[in-house]
Backbone:
C-alpha cells in the first residue's frame, strides 16, 4: 500500500456491481448519505481466508437499510459473493471487510425518495483494534457524557452511520485524556456498551452479566460469546446494569468484530483483573473464528 490514508491505496473495491481501482471508488460531495446520514455499514473479519459469520453480517446490513427506509439492490447471496471476491482480489487472508450502502445524490434535501441506492465493499489487512499489550493487561475506559438514545428517538437496531457520531466524540475525548475507549451509558443512565463494542461483566456469582440490547446493537460477536460461555457451562444474564455496580465487578471485557474479546482493566476509578473467564472467552473466540494463534503471537 502506498500510504496510510484510506483514499490513497492500491487495491480493488467492489462498487455497484463492478470492481474498480481503490483510488477511483469515490462519491459526489452532494451525496445524501454524507449530508443526512442515510448510510448503513458492516464490519467483518476474515480469518485464514474465511469471513466469520458472513451471512449474519449481510443479513444485518440488508435489515439496517430497511430500517432506514431503503432497499439494497443486491441479494444477500450477491453481497456475500462480492465480499469474498474483494478479499480474493486484494489477497486478504486475515483482514477486515467493510460493506457500506447509502443514498446517492439525485435529490438533495431531507426527502430523497428517488435517490439511487449504492453499495460498495472494501477489504484490507488490519491488526488488532487494540494493541496486544493493552489487551493482555486490560484497556482503560472513561465514562462518556454522551448517552445512547432511546429506541423511539433513533433507529437503534440498525448499524447506521449517523448513530456513531456520539461514539466518535466520546472516543476522541477519552483518548485525549489518556484512555483507550469510552463507556457509553443509555438515556436511562444504565451501562450500554463501549463506542464500538458490547460489554460483559463478571461478579462474585461467577456468571456473565451483560446489558439488555434494547437501545444498541445486539452484536454478532456478543451473541457468539454468549454461545461460547454457555457451552462452558457459564450462565449468562442479560439485564439492566447500573454504573455503581462496577464497584463489585471482578472482570470486564468488550466484544466486537474489531475488538474481538478485549479485557478491560479500568473504568474511571474502578479496577478489574484479566481473570479466568476473560481468558477463556478470548481463547474460545480465537478458536471459533479459526485464528492462526501462532501467527497472532508474532
Residues:
Amino acid at each position: 500500500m502506498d500510504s496510510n490514508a484510506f483514499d490513497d491505496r492500491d487495491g480493488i473495491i467492489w462498487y455497484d456491481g463492478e470492481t474498480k481501482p481503490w483510488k477511483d471508488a469515490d462519491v459526489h460531495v452532494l451525496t445524501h448519505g454524507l449530508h443526512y446520514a442515510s448510510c448503513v455499514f458492516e464490519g467483518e473479519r476474515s480469518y485464514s481466508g474465511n469471513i466469520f459469520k458472513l451471512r449474519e453480517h449481510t443479513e444485518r446490513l440488508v435489515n439496517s437499510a430497511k430500517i432506514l427506509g431503503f432497499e439494497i439492490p443486491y441479494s444477500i447471496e450477491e453481497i456475500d459473493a462480492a465480499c469474498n471476491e474483494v478479499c480474493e482480489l486484494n489477497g486478504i487472508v486475515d483482514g477486515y471487510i467493510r460493506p457500506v450502502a447509502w443514498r446517492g445524490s439525485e435529490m438533495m434535501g431531507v426527502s430523497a425518495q428517488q435517490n439511487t441506492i449504492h453499495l460498495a465493499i472494501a477489504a484490507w489487512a488490519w491488526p488488532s483494534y487494540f494493541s496486544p499489550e493493552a489487551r493482555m493487561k486490560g484497556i482503560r475506559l472513561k465514562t462518556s457524557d454522551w448517552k445512547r438514545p432511546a429506541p423511539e428517538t433513533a433507529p437503534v437496531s440498525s448499524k447506521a452511520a449517523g448513530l456513531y457520531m456520539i461514539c466518535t466524540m466520546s472516543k476522541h475525548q477519552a483518548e485525549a485524556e489518556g484512555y483507550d475507549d469510552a463507556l457509553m451509558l443509555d438515556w436511562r443512565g444504565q451501562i450500554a456498551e463501549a463506542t464500538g463494542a458490547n460489554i460483559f461483566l463478571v461478579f462474585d456469582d461467577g456468571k456473565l452479566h451483560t446489558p439488555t440490547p434494547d437501545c444498541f446493537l445486539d452484536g454478532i460477536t456478543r451473541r457468539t460469546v454468549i454461545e461460547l460461555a454457555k457451552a462452558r457451562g457459564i450462565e449468562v444474564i442479560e439485564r439492566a446494569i447500573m454504573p455503581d455496580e462496577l464497584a463489585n465487578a471482578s472482570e470486564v471485557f468488550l466484544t466486537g468484530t474489531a475488538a474481538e474479546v478485549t479485557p478491560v482493566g479500568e473504568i474511571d476509578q474502578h479496577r478489574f483483573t484479566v481473570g479466568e473467564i476473560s481468558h477463556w472467552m478470548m481463547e474460545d473466540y480465537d478458536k471459533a473464528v479459526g485464528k492462526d494463534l501462532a501467527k497472532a503471537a508474532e
Summary: The chain has two domains: 12-124, 132-291. The chain is about 25% helix and 30% strand.
